[in-house]
Amino acid sequence: MFNRRGILAIIMMSVVVLLLAACSGENGEGQKDVSEDLDASVEKASAEEGPEVIKAHEAINHEPTPLDIERDGSDVYVNMTAQITDIEIDDGYNYKAWTFNGEAPGPLVVVNEGDTIHFTLDNMDPSIPHSMDFHAVHTAPDKGFADVAPNEEGTFVYEASNPGVFMYHCGTDPVLSHIANGMHGVIIVQPDDGYPTDDEVDQEYVIIQNEWYKYNDLDNMTNEEPSQVVLSSKALHDGQPNTNGTVGALIDEPLKAKVGDKVRFYINNVGPNEMSSFHVIGTLFDDVYIDGNPANHQEGMQTVGLPASGGAVVEFIVKEPGTYKFVTHQFNHVQKGGVGKLIVTE
Ligand SMILES: [Cu+2]
């Protein structure tokens, strides 16, 4: 029935059909494998790199709450919130921060030496207890800094008996998670008799250093280098920058002074883990009050070391117009954001 040519044609056709079938099978299988691999790698990447937001926090982004502070004689009533608020700590990088009042660092609190602080914490977090540890006060920490349960309020009373530039932070276990996720700030207790250099000061600002780590990752916070080291400012006077601790905050919103001004910075390093070596490029500090206590007066310092939680008042005169950068002189941290600008004009 078939001649040799016919048989050859049938064999050729069969080979082509078999090859096509094999190829389509390979392609189909191949595509499936690749897309499965892709799905798996995306899942793996998001598990490894993506934020691990606590389930109860996922849908929460509380609006910042203005600080509520009222004075009645030497009694000061300070009402603050613990709340969950998104903060863009670097371009396009949102951090679902655990905060006081929706800011990280939290709002600046200023009281006078000898005041009685009546502090109320409204814990708006539905899932985790929070607390307040003011470094400015003496109290039994298990009582004065006790946890406030989710959706509850707690009130605590203590004296601000020592002047200074103090850290405050959430003290709930594990403390590192609460501080590194954003629950830190500064309380200034103004000295009764002021600082001996008060009359010389023309401009004064508050500068805070803090670090950020991989989102809510206690292992990373414990064992690794910070991802960002940042400087922020809290408005001490109307019209001053009031920023979060974000990369470039004080480059985008520089501080300002005039030639010949004596400038005072109230500084604090809230950490949680790293030292700060605070330095202003192009000048040196005529007067320094370590931890902001007038009794700790030093002169002629180039750099002021701030341990984690440590503060200082530093004062210097800007003699020429220009842009004076201030940094932590640990320059690996400048690479991660630890720099701001003071612009001095005629
Ligand atoms: Cu907390």
Automatic annotation (TrEMBL):
Query: Which positions are tagged coiled coil?
Result: none
CDD domains, per the entry? CuRO_1_CuNIR (cd11020), CuRO_2_CuNIR (cd04208)
Q: What class of enzyme is it?
A: oxidoreductase
Record carries keyword Nucleus: no
Q: Which UniProt keywords apply?
A: Copper, Metal-binding, Oxidoreductase, Repeat
* InterPro entries in the cross-refs: Cu-oxidase-like_N, Cu-oxidase_C, Cu-oxidase_fam, Cupredoxin, NO2-reductase_Cu
Q: Which Pfam families match?
A: Cu-oxidase_2, Cu-oxidase_3
Q: Which residues form the Plastocyanin-like domain?
A: 84-192, 235-345
Q: What is its EC number?
A: 1.7.2.1
Q: How does it assemble?
A: Homotrimer.
Q: What is this protein called?
A: Copper-containing nitrite reductase
Task: Name the species this protein comes from.
Answer: Lentibacillus persicus
